[in-house]
Design brief:
193 residues, 22% strand, 8 strands, 8-stranded mixed sheet
Length: 193
């Protein structure tokens, strides 16, 4: 769908320069999705792996984030391999609804209620990032945290349009459950694309 060089705005690598590769196609259907234009894969041009990697390599950072849409709908081995050959760390952000096909250096699973994640994908997560849209999302977060490894970073992130109401609830929750941390969409606060 699009490729761009910016700063990672969320999670463990927040604030680091990164090249984003946003793939078109998603059938998860989050009502609050901020890139609904990514859902229809056919609405976006097909670009070769070589062209994607060449554009990524034109920037100095060697962190590539594959996102979507839902990037795990695709076999990402060729893209991961090409990026690794040029010295990139390859991250993926996925809902976990599909098996992972690719060699990733960091896996962020952001499970969605609209299409439940696969337990074995959640178990591979380096980072579990649960979007908090309403109070029931805390129980949703805990249910999926039970599949994660002990080393997995556990993040609760307020949905952008509900952040005023949800952030105080997340703060209180993290204070009572300190294995969780807060993730904020810092790129939105700083108005970084």
């Amino acid at each position: 769908m699009e490729m761009f060089y910016t700063l990672q705005g969320e999670g463990a690598f927040s604030g680091q320069a990164a090249y984003f590769i946003r793939l078109g196609g998603c059938d998860v259907g989050c009502v609050w999705c901020d890139v609904k234009e990514s859902w229809d894969a056919d609405a976006h041009p097909k670009i070769s792996v070589e062209a994607i990697v060449e554009e990524a390599a034109a920037h100095p950072a060697r962190l590539a984030v594959i996102t979507g849409g839902e990037p795990a709908m695709y076999d990402l081995n060729p893209l991961c391999d090409a990026l690794h050959r040029l010295g990139f760390r390859v991250h993926i952000e996925t809902s976990g609804a599909y098996p992972l096909l690719g060699r990733f250096d960091w896996i962020t699973v952001s499970p969605k209620k609209f299409k439940a994640p696969l337990e074995d994908v959640v178990a591979q997560a380096d980072e579990l990032k649960v979007i908090v849209f309403n109070k029931s999302d805390f129980a949703w977060a805990e249910a999926h945290a039970s599949y994660c490894s002990p080393d997995c970073l556990m993040l609760l992130q307020p949905e952008w349009d509900k952040s005023e109401a949800m952030t105080p609830l997340i703060i209180d929750y993290v204070k009572r459950h300190p294995r969780w941390r807060i993730s904020l969409q810092t790129h939105k606060w700083m108005q970084i694309p």
